[in-house]
Every structure is written in structure tokens, then in C-alpha cells.
Amino acid sequence: MSSGQKWKRSRHLLTPAFHFDILKPYVKIYKTCADILSENLNEHADTDCQSKRETNHPYVSAVQDIAMTWLLRNKSPWLYPDFIFYRTKQGQKFKADCDYVHKIAEDIIDKRRRELESEDLSHKRYLDFLDILLTAKDESGNGLTKEDIRNEVDTFLFEGHDTTASAISWILYSLAENPECQRKCQEEIDKVISETKSGRLEWKDLGKLDYLTECIKEGMRVHSPVPGVSRVNTQPIKVDDVTIPPGTIILINFYALHHNPTVWGQNHMEFKPERFNRDNSEKRDSFAFCPFSAGPRNCIGQNFAMSEEKVVLASLLRRFSFSLDKDHKVDKVIAAVMRPVDGIKLYIRSRDN
Ligand code: HEM
């Protein structure tokens, strides 16, 4: 949420946390998490998955509720003044959810701070994001303040889970809707895994999942997990013969960009992964597809996100096949990320059966 010099300094301090060498060991962590998810799904495989409802972690539920209330407040000008909003039921719940989310971030920071105090960092080969936040100093030897650190951890906790959860869910939805594409992904995943020594995907294998990568990109085009960003211009901007005065709120709509019929054709709503094969990608303007935004303020976690999506989807598709519940209508709502109005409901079948 910061801007100007403050943003520049944080971005500079944190960029090393997303170096490939730091991301590599995360493959194991994504895999462990994907296995837990698979075990949870396995309980429902080949049964009526809708008869049981999973409950979210309270952190995930709080973030979802915050986003929905943010949407409600945006649409309700009478809730704009704080002295009204925080007197309403939603405002009070919003405040309690924010306090809870902040508390989780503070607990994580305190725990790592204690660990760092009792640890010799010189033995650590790579410092992860939290190590960097807690130890980083700029050229003048100043570290981040307690509040700065909390704000960064909040951003990463939110950006790091809600976005990829949206992307993975919508991609699975499209794969369930397009069984032929799903089958091709499974064939590719089976082949790549069968060629590994350990029987598990490692960092170097992720680059071999070409077709899955096409499906991931196409899913992020069709559904645009982060549908747009906004900016306030500090300088006048001239677009053709229109000048936008400084101080204007400008919305950059990635969802519309990803559905521009001039670029994507009249069938832009259809899921066609081949749009992202090498030939087709080379023919297109590189700014036609911007799920992670573009420019200096683009997504710092995009390589992290892509590798997480590959590992999680590969683990799920290796074990299960997914099909649509055709009786359940899936509508979209933008609440920070692209969410389904009433969930996405898929049937899960174990592939061993
Ligand atoms: C599919 C997953 C993701 C998508 C689609 C996505 C998309 C985006 C977009 C569009 C922006 C630009 C926001 C703006 O300009 O206002 C952004 C910024 C950001 N993203 Fe992501 N993101 C994803 C995953 C992640 C992950 C996994 C992390 C962290 C581990 C992350 C961390 C960030 C951060 C910290 C920023 C702010 C960067 C800055 O302001 O310099 N994102 N993301």
C-alpha cells in the first residue's frame, strides 16, 4: 500500500527474497501442502463431495470477509465515513477481522525474531523473506520499523495465498470444463514424474511441464485472478487527444484486456491453452497478457506464484480427475481477487479407480 520513496526502499530490500535460489527449496513446501490438500480431497473422492463442507482456517475466512466487506463498502457511499461505517455491524466485524489478521502477522514476526536471536545467520545458506525483513538495512544502516515489517508481512500473507488460491481454483474449474485439456495435462505430468529419479517433481522438472503451463496461463487469462489495479496519476497523462489531469483515479482492467476480441478473437471466453504455445505467444504484444501487472510495480511474487501453481496442480491432477457439477451455476465477483459468488463445485475421482 505504500508509495514513493517508502515503496522504493521496501521493494529494493525485498527483491533478493524472490531470487530463484531462494524459491527452489519452496518446491518441497508446496508439495507438502499439496499432499495435505490431496489427503483432504481424497476423503471426498468418489463420494458426494457436497454432503460435507470443509471449514477454512480462521485467517483465510477473515481475509475473505474483509474483502467482501471492502466490496460492500465500495458500493455503498453512505458507509464511506469512518464514524458511520465502524458503528455498523459490518464495520465492527471488519475491525475485529483486521485486528485478528494483524495479530497473526505479529505472532509470526515475534516467533521468527526469537528464533533469529538464538541463531547464527552465517550458517544459513539463504535468507527467506522474513529473515530479510527483520535483518535488512538500507545504505544508511536503517532497518524497517516494527510497523513497516507488520505491513509487509500482512501484504505477503494476503497476496501470497488469496491470489494463488483464486488462480488454482479457476484453473481447476476450466480443466474440469475441458476434460480433453485435463487429460493432456495428466499425460504430461505422468510422463515428467516417471522420468524423475525420486518420483517427485523438483525445481528443474517444472520447466518441462509445457502444456500445464499453457493451461495455467490460459486459466489466468480467462478468469484473471487479480482482475485490475488502480493508480492515482501524479503527472498529467496524454492518451491520444485526451489529457488525464493529475490526481485522477485510474483503473487498469486486466480482465477486459484479457478479453479484448481484437487480440483474443471472438472466442475469447473459450479456454484454448494453445493460445500460449510458443508460436502464438511470439506473435502477440507482450502487454496483451498481464496477470501479474507490468512495470516497476509488477508482482514481486510472480515466479513464486507460477511454481506454486505448477506444483499444486500437478500433484492434484496426478492423483485425481475433476469434473463439473453442471447443476451449480458459477458466477464471478471481484472482491480484491476474482472470486466465485457461491463457490466452485467439482466432482473428484481418484485416478487409480
Ligand atoms: C496467481 C497469483 C498472483 C497474481 C495473479 C498476482 C498479481 C499481482 C498484481 C496484478 C500485482 C500488482 C498490484 C498493483 O499494481 O496494484 C501484484 C503485486 C504484488 N504481489 Fe502478486 N500476484 C500473485 C501472487 C503473489 C504471491 C504468491 C506473492 C508473494 C509471495 C505476491 C506478492 C505481491 C506483492 C508484495 C505485490 C506488491 C508489489 C509492489 O507493490 O512492489 N503476489 N500481484
Overview of this protein structure:
There is one protein chain. This protein has 353 residues and is mainly alpha-helical. It has one domain: Cytochrome p450 (Orthogonal Bundle), CATH 1.10.630.10. 53% of the residues lie in helices and 10% in strands. It contains 15 helices and 8 strands. The protein has helices at residues 4-14, 20-23, 26-42, 58-75, 82-85, 89-117, 129-135, 146-177, 179-194, 203-206, 210-223, 254-257, 261-264, 278-283, 302-319, and strands at 228-232, 237-239, 242-244, 249-253, 320-324, 332-335, 337-340, 346-350. The protein has a two-stranded antiparallel sheet with strand order 1-4. A two-stranded antiparallel sheet has the order 2-3. The chain has a two-stranded antiparallel sheet with strand order 5-8. α4 packs across α6 and α8 crosses α11. The protein is globular. The mean pLDDT is 91. The site of protoporphyrin IX containing FE has 20 residues, from α8 and α15. Belongs to the cytochrome P450 family. Keywords: Heme, Iron, Metal-binding, Monooxygenase, Oxidoreductase. This is Cytochrome P450 4F22. Heme binds at residue 299. Its cofactor is heme.
Name the CATH class.
Mainly Alpha
Class computed from helices, strands and strand pairing: mainly alpha
The CATH homologous superfamily corresponds to Cytochrome P450
How many domains? 1
Strand residue content: 5-15%
CATH topology: Cytochrome p450
Number of strands: 8
CATH architecture: Orthogonal Bundle
Largest sheet entry? 2 strands, antiparallel
Bound molecules: protoporphyrin IX containing FE
Rounded to the nearest angstrom, the distance between the terminal CA atoms is: 49 Å
Quickly count the helices. 15
The parts where pLDDT drops under 50 for at least 5 residues are none
Succession of helices and strands? HHHHHHHHHHHEEEEHHHHEEEE
Categorize the overall geometry: globular
- What's the overall average pLDDT, rounded? 91
What is the C-alpha radius of gyration, as a whole number of Å?
Answer: 22 Å
- Share in helix: 40-55%
Taking strands numbered 1, 2, ... along the chain, how are they ordered across the largest sheet?
A: 1-4
